[in-house]
Amino acid sequence: MVAGQPGVLGSNATSLNRPADIKPDNYLNMFVADSQNSRIQMFCHNNQTDITIAGDGVVGHSATRLNDPRGITFDSSMNMYIGDGGNGRVPKFLKL
What we know:
mainly beta, Thrombin, subunit H, four-stranded antiparallel beta sheet, three-stranded antiparallel beta sheet, 36% strand, globular
C-alpha cells in the first residue's frame, strides 16, 4: 500500500476519496488528485502520510480552492498544473 486505506474513503492525512490521477515528481514524491476531497495531496517518498498542497478539502471557486480535481501534470520547471474539472479551469501552482 502506497497511499490511502483499502475500502475506506476519508479526508484525513492517511485516506483519500476517489483519487483521480497520480503523478510522481523528480524526487519520487507522489501527487494525488483527491477528487472528492477537492484537494491535491503529496506523499513524500517512503511516507504514507500526506500533505495537502492545493485546495483545502472544501469545494470552491477561488484561486485557492478546487472542485473535483481530475488531472495533474508538471512542466520542465516542476510547476504543477491541475485539471480542475468542476471549475472548468487549469490553475498553475509554482514549484514547491
